[in-house]
Each structure stands twice: as C-alpha cells, then as structure tokens.
Amino acid sequence: MGQAVAQIVEHRVHRRRRTLLRTRGASIGLTATATDRVVRQIEAGFPFKSLESLSALSGLSTTEIASILRIPERTLARRNAAGRLRPDESERLLRISTIFEKAVELFEGDIGAAANWLRAPKRALGGQSPLTYSGTELGAREVERLIGRLEHGVFS
Predict the structure, then answer these.
(1) Counted domains in the chain
(2) Which of 105, 103, 111 is nearest to 133 (CA)?
C-alpha cells in the first residue's frame, strides 16, 4: 500500500513538472505567452529572480547560467542588487530557458537527465555541450534542431 501511494505521488510530481514547462519561459517564471508582451518584458529586463528560478529548477548554478549569458561575476552581483537584468541579458536568458525546456521535454519531464544532457559534449555540436553551444542565437537554433532530430529517432 505504501509503495502504491509513493508511485501516485511520484506520478503527480512528474506530471506537475511537465505542466510547469508547457509554455515558453515557464522555467524562468514568464507568464506572458503573447509575443508582444514577451518582447515588452524583455525590453524592461526580467527580474533577477528569473535567473534564480531557472537555477533552482534546472540544478544549474547561477554562476553556470551567468557564464552562458556572458554576465561576469561582479556584474551578476550588481544585477542581483538591482533586482533586474538588462534587456540583452533577458533575451539570452529566455533563449537558454527555451533550450532547457525543450531538453526537459525530450527527456519526458526528467529534469536531472535534461540538465546532464545539456552539460555533456556532443559530437554533433563540434564537441561542445548544448548549453555552451546555446550561448549564441545560431548555436541555440542548432541545439533545437539536434533535439528535434533526437525526438524523431535520428541519432546525430
């Protein structure tokens, strides 16, 4: 009986995590789904807690995420004190969160497996990790294509 309850709880947690990541930017707390509203939020700069949300959910450290966003440590501390990211940093954060969310979807809601996959070098990405490769818009699109190929069983 105890094991059956544990399985139900695990199923609910697993389902909730998938539900949590159904919309673009959910991993950073973005609630807007209309593109014009997302653009306005990017232009205003996301709250610093958006970066912390991605860190808490993904298991990636804020320093690791900041490195991909090209935010030096001292600047990161200033952003934390100000409570807001700049628009260019916000746009890059949305890009990284989108890649993370697609990886979670690829791994059917297994956040740990998705984070591990994002950190591991891939031959299809010239030996770089998907997370590092996503540091540029062009690289992120290539990571999305790789995820798409994997979803369709085309191992690259």
Answers:
(1) 1
(2) 103
pLDDT tens, N- to C-terminus, the chain (156 residues): 344 333 333 444 444 444 346 678 989 998 888 889 999 999 999 999 999 999 999 999 999 999 999 999 999 999 999 999 999 999 999 999 999 999 999 999 999 999 999 999 999 999 999 999 999 999 999 999 999 999 888 766
Q: Which residue has the tokens 């995420």?
A: 65
The answer to the question of residue 110 being in a domain is yes
CA distance 147 to 134: 12
With respect to residue 86, please indicate whether it lies within any of the assigned structural domains.
yes
Range of the domain at 105: 2-151
156: in domain: no
